[in-house]
Design a protein that fits this description.
nine-stranded mixed sheet, TIM Barrel, alpha/beta, Lyase, Ornithine Decarboxylase, Chain A, domain 1, eight-stranded parallel β-barrel, about 425 residues, 12 helices, 2 domains
Length: about 425
């Protein structure tokens, strides 16, 4: 595993790691550790390359903000022209605070509450992607209550074979909780067409993340196209086809980088035949490679025949290694040239608290700065306060400038919502 996972934004100068034109060590000294650091240049580059590849078809990018909902990242993508895909009322709120308007927002998610459906309708979101008959009927009731017509897409589970790195990130095969089984979709279309406060205008699929091939897109789109044709025969025009996200990101040398032109070549002909607008929902593709996690080495320890590097970041900051058996390249910000085989672990009171196991990497000592690469997606957003650990800070870099865009939590933040004097009530 090596340097090919790095982007042009993360380079070395006289041996020391830089994010764009800012030294990792400078950021760590100024902002403290652990800290997530994001490169604005990576996000701009990836947005530019994706939209250029899709230029031949009418489309809109809607960033899947579950990957990283940082306000600075959202604001940057909004300035570039992106919309957002949200999966909760909280994400909707964050998107609105970052300046996104209703027409910029798609509301997905398998378990939307009545409150969230109401919030989406009041915000005037572009589409609410419905995932079941029960949700459709609930949305009809809420829309009737508000006196509005809900613009709806149906999320179809296309039941395709998906090859990716972990079962938890496959979403488009039979038996998953997501979406409407494709062989039941037409029945739900008939129900939707009979509802006074529902306007069916979109079809949606999301087959999974880190897709190894384009075949799931091709197979899934074939099923959406067939369904759209049958819906058109009923007199309903599908205006939007949402193919979700899933574009892969390189975490190690064996992972693919997506061929965006090949992706467009699979998608565009279908959209042109349907005369529909394409919606794509990349999340990880934009944010993962834009970010690193900086952590300070606390101790070296040998136990049971193993060497441990104990850092001030662990599963509370980056859950992916423990939860998904995920690989992240880990280096010293300023390597000594020596190598060692170690477990990189955090301070959390769990045996599952690790960032790497039996990893050959730069040999480091207490006080050295570790760089955990490709940590911009599903890092901070999945972090926790377990063991009463305050959440890390987040920093954005833009050329030779950097700024703390999320302050580090304090001990007071950990107890801010607790009630010292609860208001006891009789049952």
């Amino acid at each position: 595993m090596g340097q090919s996972v790095l982007t042009a934004a993360f380079t070395r100068r006289d041996g020391a790691l830089y994010c764009e034109d800012v030294s990792a060590e400078v950021i760590a000294r100024e902002a403290g550790t652990p800290v997530f650091v994001y490169s604005s240049a990576v996000i701009r580059d990836r947005y530019s390359r994706l939209t250029a590849a899709l230029a031949g078809v009418k489309h809109r990018v809607h960033y899947a903000m579950k990957a990283n909902g940082n306000r600075a990242i959202l604001s940057l993508l909004r300035e570039l022209g992106s919309g957002v895909d949200v999966v909760s009322g909280g994400e909707l709120h964050r998107a609105q605070r970052a300046g996104f308007k209703g027409h910029d927002i798609i509301f997905g998610g398998v378990g939307k509450t009545i409150r969230e459906l109401r919030e989406g309708l009041k915000a005037g979101v572009k589409l609410i992607n419905v995932e079941s008959e029960a949700e459709l009927l609930m949305l009809e009731a809420v829309a009737r209550e508000l006196g509005v017509v809900a613009q709806v897409g149906l999320r179809i589970n296309p039941d395709v074979t998906v090859e990716n790195s972990h079962a938890y990130i496959a979403t488009g095969s039979r038996g998953h909780k997501f979406g409407i089984p494709h062989d039941e979709a037409l029945a739900l279309v008939k129900i939707a067409r009979g509802l006074e406060h529902i306007e069916l205008i979109g079809l949606d699929m999301h087959v999974g993340s880190q897709l190894a091939t384009l075949e799931p897109y091709r197979a899934g789109l074939d099923r959406l196209m067939e369904l759209a044709g049958r819906i058109a025969a009923m007199g309903t025009k599908i205006r939007y086809v949402d193919v979700g996200g899933g574009l892969p990101v390189r975490y190690d040398d064996g992972d693919p980088e997506p061929d965006l032109d090949a992706f467009a070549a699979v998608i565009a002909p279908v959209l042109k035949k349907l005369n529909a607008e394409l919606i794509v929902e990349p999340g990880r593709f934009f944010s993962a490679a834009s970010g690193v996690l900086l952590a300070r080495v606390l101790y070296r320890k040998r136990s049971g025949g193993k060497d441990y590097v104990i850092a001030d970041a662990g599963m509370t900051e980056l859950l992916r290694p423990s939860h998904y058996d995920a690989y992240h390249l880990i280096e010293s910000a300023t390597p000594s040239g020596e190598r060692a085989v170690v477990d990189v672990v955090g301070p959390v009171c769990e045996s599952g608290d690790f960032l790497a196991q039996d990893r050959e990497m730069d040999s480091v000592e207490p006080g050295d700065l570790l760089v955990v690469h490709t940590a911009g997606a599903y890092g901070y957003v999945m972090s926790s306060n377990y063991n009463a650990r305050p959440k890390a800070a987040e920093v954005m870099v833009d050329g030779a400038k950097f700024a703390v865009v999320t302050a580090r939590e304090t001990y007071d933040d950990l107890v801010r919502l607790e009630q010292a004097h609860p208001d006891w009530r009789d049952a």
